[in-house]
Amino acid sequence: MRFIILFFLYIYSFSIEIQKPKVYYGDENITAWLMSEKLDGIRGYWDGEKLHTRRGNKIFAPNWFLENLPPFELDGELWTKRSDFETIQNIVMDKTPSKDWQKITYNIFEVPNAKGNFLKRLNKAKNWFEKYPINHVKIVNQIKINNKKHLDDFLNEIIHKKGEGVIIKNPEKSYHTGRSPHVLKVKKAQDMEGKVIAITISKKTTILKSLRVKLENGVIFNLGTGFTKEQRKKPPKVGEIITFKYFGLTKKGKPRFASFLHIRKD
Asked: Tens of pLDDT along 84-141?
């Protein structure tokens, strides 16, 4: 029985190393870097045969969605529109793909393990899709940064349109995985993930008061804001991973002014 379970897990998930952005603090030299909108969707890693989440779980996309994708790796965001994360997550994480996949676009921002600098890697994908065009696949537009004001103006434009933020990247670096100072996320507020380890319910109203959240580095704090009335009636469960926004850290490493955003299922 144990062998069967392990075999099942092997088929439907695998371990992948992906590129992850660090936080932009404003004092980095980013002139001549490239910037693009940070799309708030579900990350989709194409291994040349199958589509996976950032944690390596298989995404059950319909066959027509995957048709004509290249035999090489792609990294991108499965997305519909701004401020639509819950809808995107429900569509993409459903193991029985629905007709709502027609709303999803695959937005390519990297070609993992391809040779050359960033633009040469992206050109590999562009050349493929010029030959085999797919309506729901897009290459994320990259803009050369003139100076810090240029970046600030672009960020403000994205925020005004209710977008999440901006990704900036050193275009001269070869492909790498993990976090590095060469790929940065730029936001008005930062975001982070944590694991729910306890729930506090009001004895009078029987609705959520706060969550006890544990960060990856072991720091534990209480999260009590950002929830809708419905979310307080039906809060995240112990063991689930949530995303919250915050504004810097305290001396003890706890997020300042943390506010709940959503549950992560990917």
From this structure: 998 999 999 999 999 999 999 999 999 999 999 999 999 999 999 999 999 999 999 9
Beta strand pairing status for 165-169 and 178-186?
A: antiparallel
- Using DSSP, state whether 264 is helix, strand or coil: strand
CB atoms within 10 A of CB 15: 6
Domains in the chain, CATH or no CATH each: 17-186 (3.30.470.30), 190-264 (2.40.50.140)
Give Cα separations from 43 to 93, 107, 199 (angstroms).
11, 9, 28
Cα 25 to Cα 37: distance, rounded to the nearest angstrom: 17
234 catalytic residue (yes or no): no
Q: From the candidates 20, 38, 126, 173, give the one annotated as an active-site residue.
A: 38
Provide the edge-to-edge strand list for the sheet that holds 51-52: 51-52, 42-46, 74-79, 105-110, 137-139
Q: pLDDT band for 239, please (50, 70, 90 cuts).
A: very high
CA distance 117 to 172: 5
